[in-house]
Amino acid sequence: MKPDPYRLFFPIGIALGLAGVSIWPLYVLHVVGTYSGRAHALVQTDGFLYAFIAGFLLTAVPRFTGTDAPGRCVQYVLATAVVAACVASDLQAFALGTAIFLGAHLLLMGLVAARFVQRQQNPPPTFALIGLGLVAGLAGAALNAGVASELVDPRWDLLGKRLMTEGMVLLLVLGVGGFLGPRLLGFAALPQFAASGPGGRPSSAIGELTRDWRWTAAGLAILASLVADYGYGVTWAALVRAAVVTAVILFTVRVWQKPAVRTTLSWCVWTANWLVVAAVWLVALAPKYRVDFLHVLFIGGFSLMILAVATRVTLSHGGHDLHQEQRSWPLRLGLTFGLVAMIARIGAPFAAATYFEHLAFAGVLWIAGILLWGVYILKRLA
C-alpha cells in the first residue's frame, strides 16, 4: 500500500519549523550561548517549507497527472534526507547538510518528472511555474552546497539563498496558488481533468510549455531578475520581479475581490496573497531593510499559504467534512499569531536596543500559532 505522502511530510514540516524558529527564544533566554542565522535560514527553507512542498507535490502531482503516488520506501528515503540535511545544518555542518539537501531535491525532481512523463492527463497551465520553481531550487541548492564546500566563490552565496526562497518557493506559490487560489476563494470550481491533445492524449512536454506561454514567460522573468539582482547587483531588477509577481496574482487569484466563499480558509488564502504582493514591493522599494521585509514574504505569505493549503489537503484527502474550514479556530489562531509574529519581526530593526527580544517574541508567537494549528492537523492525520 502506498500511503498519501502528505501524511508523512506534513508532520515533519511542523516539527522542523518549530526547531528552526526556536533558536531565537532559546538564545534570548540564555538556554544556548550562541546562534547561527545561516542554520535558522537553512532549516526553515530546506526543512519547514520543503517538507510541506514535498508532501503537497507528491500528493497532488499524481492526482493531476493520473499517475501513482511514489511508494512507501522512496517516501521514507526522501523524508530521511530532508531531516538529515536539517540536523546537519543545525549542527553547523553546512557542507554536509547542503550536500544532503541537494540529493534530496534531485530525488524529488526525479519523482515529479517521472509522473509528468507518464501522465495520462495534463496538469493545469500554471503548473509550468512549478517546473521552473523546481529548477530554481536545483540551482540554489547546488550553489549553497558549492559555497559551503568552498568549491564555489562565496559571492554567489546570496544568489543561492534567494533562488531557494524568492525563486523556488515563490514560483511554487504562484504556480499552485494560480490554480487553487481562485477555487479556494470560490471564484471557480475544481474541475475534473481530462486528457488533452491530439487523439485524446496528453500534449507533449514542449506543448505543455507553449500551451500558455504567459506562465513560462513570467517564471523566466522572475528567475532572470533574481540572477541580475543578487548575482550582478542590478537592484532595479527587484522592481521587475515585483511587477511580474503582482501581475500573476492579480490575473489568477483576483485578490482585488473579496472571497466569494467566506470561510476562515478563504480569508487565509486571500490574506497570504496580499502579503506576497506587499512583500515583493517592500523588498524592491526599501533595499536597506530587504532582509527584514523578506519576512513579510516568509512569515506572512509562505507560512499562511502553508496553513491554508495543508488544511485543505488534510481535510479533503482524509475524507473529513470540508465544513470544518468555515469557522476553523485552529486556522484562525494560526493566522492571527502568524500576522502578529510578522509585525514583531519586521519591527526588530527599528528597535535596535531590543532587537533580539523582537526576534524571540516573533518566534514564540509563530511557534504558538503553528502548534495550535498543528495539533488540529495531526489529529486529523491520525
Q: What's a quick, concise take on this entry?
A:
By secondary structure, the protein is an all-alpha fold.
What does this structure look like?
The protein is mainly alpha-helical and 382 residues long. Helix content is 74%, strand content 0%. The chain contains 14 helices and no strands. Helix 3 runs antiparallel to helix 4, helix 4 (72-90) runs antiparallel to helix 5 (94-117) and helix 7 packs parallel to helix 10. The longest helix is centred in the N-terminal third of the chain and has 29 residues, at 37-65. The chain is globular, with a radius of gyration of 20 Å. 51% of the residues are buried.
Strand-helix topology:
Elements: H1 5-21, H2 23-28, H3 37-65, H4 72-90, H5 94-117, H6 128-148, H7 157-184, H8 205-211, H9 213-232, H10 237-252, H11 264-285, H12 290-317, H13 329-346, H14 355-381
Alpha plus pi helix count: 14
C-alpha Rg (nearest Å) = 20 Å
Proportion of beta-strand residues: under 5%
Determine the oligomeric state from the structure: single chain
What is the helix content? over 70%
Report the sheet with the most strands, covering strand number, pairing sense and barrel closure. Answer: none
Q: Which parts are unreliable, with pLDDT below 50 for 5 consecutive residues or more?
A: 193-200
Which structural class best describes the helix and strand composition?
mainly alpha
The gross shape turns out to be globular
Rounded to the nearest angstrom, the distance between the terminal CA atoms is: 17 Å
Helix and strand succession? HHHHHHHHHHHHHH
Count of individual beta strands:
0
Give the averaged pLDDT, no decimals.
Answer: 92
